[in-house]
Amino acid sequence: MMALEPHGPDTFVGVGPRYPWGGLYGGQIVAQGLRAAGITVEPAFQVHSLHAYFIRRGDHTEPIRFEVDRVRNGRSFVTRRVIARQAVGAILSMSASFQVREDAPEVQVAELPDVPAPDATAPGDQWSDIFERRFTPLHDSPGRANGWLRMHGQLEDDPLIHACALAYESDDLPTDAARSLRPDLADDDIYGTSLDHAVWFHRPARADDWLCHDLVCHGLMSSRGLSVGHVFTADGVHVASVSQEVLLRRLRR
User: pTM for this one?
Assistant: First the structure.
């Protein structure tokens, strides 16, 4: 999925599978967009954030064209803008920023929640064969989604690939956190989709190891729910932060 094909200057083409709900998965498009941006960046720069807007639903029967704009090349930071397009038009708009690692004090305040280790947690419902997930007891709390996620198999050692894989996983649980605040709606009576998505990559992490994703939805307004949270290694290292706004509506029949 990350093997994007060059298609002109700073332009790449990718494809994706059909997911159970039909169409493409937003995390896939974000991950591929980040990969496309990273290809245009020198290896000394490591991804530190992305901010994406989901514009239209993707079509799994069509290739996806990723157009990269080299917004800025600085000594410490590099900025890229990515537009993902299909026949219908733009389906995603994303900005990504990269930074040269600096020697500076590191302080961690966020803490890994008190949850069972992944090996002591039962496997959850698996909708993808690309990664697996195991929900913890916190996943049943209103407005909360918590689980261990990891990619299947072993990934190569490229830090960009692991950042892309983490971005892929990070689109999974925010909807669960928001969805838990609408117990009045059955699964077949609700429409949910991601509106925008942001990830801050604080420290390198292997996405083929178990990572704890802990998301909290802070409320619902105008059919939108805002989920924010953190990602930790099994050793409690805070490696990323995530925020996403989710659209939840009763199906119009």
Answer: 0.94
